[in-house]
Amino acid sequence: MNKKKYMMLSESIEMDGHILYRIQALVPFSDVQAGQMGGFIESEENLSHDGLAWIYDDACACDGSRVYGDAQLRNRATIRDNAQAYDSAVLEDDSLVDEEAEVYGRARMRGCSRASGTSCIYDDVELIEDAHARGNSRAYGSTILRNQAVLDDNARAYGSVDIGYHAMICGDARVSKNTHWFHLGFLNATFFFNKFGGVSIYSMQDEVLYDSADFIHKHDFGELEVIRPLAEKACEMAEAAIKI
User: 85: which of 38, 125, 169, 211 is 20 to 30 A away, CA to CA?
Assistant: First the structure.
């Protein structure tokens, strides 16, 4: 696209000391009609005139952030600092991408999810609810982060991974394949299970509290009376998650 696809209007808002201006489409593209109002940007550096990228509704882009390719910001989503959203990434609801984070591929962010630091979210990853990818973490493949889950430091989550219920994956951890991770806050422990029924339960000190290949299916906790309440609760949550 060689000509400008939008213009900045006089309507403005202030956000964290920055003045952002409403945009309006000049030509039709994708599902955007000529004359259609968009969200807010601080400068034309924030939204490319090439490709199908667009900022809808009251979504905002400011500072040195960039939205390009076919990326979309919807609802009240915000991108700021030097963050980038590109390819076919979609940010919606109240999601936030800031600092040096990048969201691309077909990644989708919803709810109050956040990507910050130098984290990268790509492929078919979903960040939903209050999930947060930060530090130098990477999430790719079909990873789902939900329910205040945190991916931090140099952690990597990939494959068909479901991380939720306050789980924190950090350090140099690698989480992959068909696993689900949850944090049981009332006992300060994290557990994961896979679709074949294997479960491991860890304390926050990474001590293995329970590890069984047939945990979910048999509900047989043997002599482990001390963690029976944890195991029973874990089983309930695991079975509920399978149905998601």
Answer: 169
Here the tokens at position 158 are: 């990939």
| Token code pair at residue 6 | 């939008």
Q: Which CATH number fits domain 6-177: 2.160.10, 2.60.120, 1.10.60, 3.30.70?
A: 2.160.10
pLDDT value at position 194? 43
Cβ partners under 8 Å of residue 71, min gap 6: 53, 85, 86, 87, 88, 89, 90, 91, 103, 104
> Residue 228: its pLDDT value, please?
44
Two tokens, residue 147: 């329910």
- Rounded-to-integer distance, Cα 20 and Cα 61, Å: 8
Closest CA to 59 of 102, 27, 90, 103: 90
Gap between the Cα atoms of 42 and 127, Å rounded: 26
Q: Which two tokens stand for residue 227?
A: 């963690």
What pLDDT does residue 37 have?
Answer: 98
Do residues 99 and 121 lie in contact, with contact meaning Cβ atoms separated by under 8 Å? Answer: no
d(CA 111, CA 128): 5
- pTM for the model stands at 0.77
Amino acid at 140: Y
Report the pLDDT value the prediction gives residue 117, as an integer from 0 to 100.
98
So where are the chain's domains?
Answer: 6-177
Q: How far apart are the first and last CA of the chain?
A: 41
Contact status, residue 25 vs residue 49, Cβ threshold 8 Å: no
Tokens representing 54? Answer: 């667009």
> How far is residue 20's CA from residue 46's CA, in Å, rounded to a whole number?
10
Of residues 40, 45, 32, 39, the one with CA closest to residue 5: 32
